[in-house]
Amino acid sequence: MPELNFKVSGDDTDLKKTLANAGKTSAKAGAQASKENVKGFNGEAKSRHKAVKVTKDQSKSSKSVFNSIDEQTKAHDRATEAITNQVALLSPELIP
After folding, report:
1. Which residues neighbour 88 within 8 Å (Cβ) at sequence distance 6 or greater?
2. In this structure, are residues 27 and 19 in contact, taking their beta carbons and an 8 Å threshold?
């Protein structure tokens, strides 16, 4: 079977413009997506920083409460010892 060869000639200016516009649109969309990703990552980093700060603050508060309770316990023990010493001086028969 014989081969047929066709040669098409014409103006491809519109095709070139369309392809150029598609490339520009793609680049613009990629840049916008990249910008949004960076914005999201920065927001996430800020949130994590705040969480770390809050955790450290809560830890300090917990330590402060623990120290306060410890001081109260020591004061109670000193008061008990002082009362025991007073009773021992005044009524030694009550001390086992």
Report:
1. 95
2. no
